[in-house]
Amino acid sequence: MDVSFLGGPQPQHGVGVVAPFDFALDRELWRWVPDDVSLRLTRTPFVPVGVSLDLARLVSEHETLREAVRALGASEPEVIAYACASGSFVGGIAGERAMCEVMNTAGEVPSLTTSGALLQALEELGAGRIALLTPYTESVTSSLEEYLGEAGVTVTGRAFLGLTRHIWKVPYRAVVDMARQAVVGAADALFISCTNLPTYDAIPQLEAELRMPVLSANQVTMWAALRTLGVRAIGPYQALLMEPEALAGTLPGPQPEALAATLPEAQPETLAGTLPEAQPETRPEEQEGWT
């Protein structure tokens, strides 16, 4: 069929995304992306290891990154984002920078990681004291806190679930409940870690309820990647995505009770067994399991 009369395809910015093999939230990433941007995703090779520091190191090995970026090269992305929080904070700030250098060289385009994007976002908001929420075990959560400490960011309170698998099945309402437990001290913002944890529809409610900016791993990754292209990420009632003047004074947005009605109810069948409660003080032991 001759489609020349249509003028060919519309120009699209391309964002390459390298995600871990168990990443299950492709659709969530797309929700921050405007129509003139296309995501090109690839995944790291499967390894039979549960979510842990060991897995974080495996999915961020330099040769794994090189191969993933080379695979994305055929689609000619203009920027490449490594969409994994633990994989990009496990080596500290030096490790995160080394990952970006490897990807820059392999892809010959600007590259970034979720954890590097987090630091950019905190700087953008002037947030030096944050509450921390993760689905991880204590050891992985502590590694993130150490990474933030290297950057001069203080964690005022934290909550985590101790999960080693099926993180993408955690319902929004559990994320909201965890956030309330994490915010126990004076904080400038809340960060929800893990790109495999659903957050898009929870952010507006939490910002309205907690009266502070709420950042998530997927949000900062897309925000930073799109900003590299000179494109604004989209998302209603999210402080990071607002124009600076809109953040003056109290955070705007709908009231928590109005937003609560929009959150889907947790479905029992979405989780294997009972979801453990977040533990802001008593830390759960690492669980056995596969991602």
TrEMBL record:
PANTHER family given in the database record: BLR3294 PROTEIN
Record-given protein name: Aspartate/glutamate racemase family protein
Region (Disordered): 251-291
Alphabetical list of Pfam families matching this protein: Amdase
Chain intervals with Basic and acidic residues compositional bias: 280-291
Database matches in InterPro entries: Iso_Racemase_Enz_sf (IPR053714), MaiA/AMDase (IPR026286)
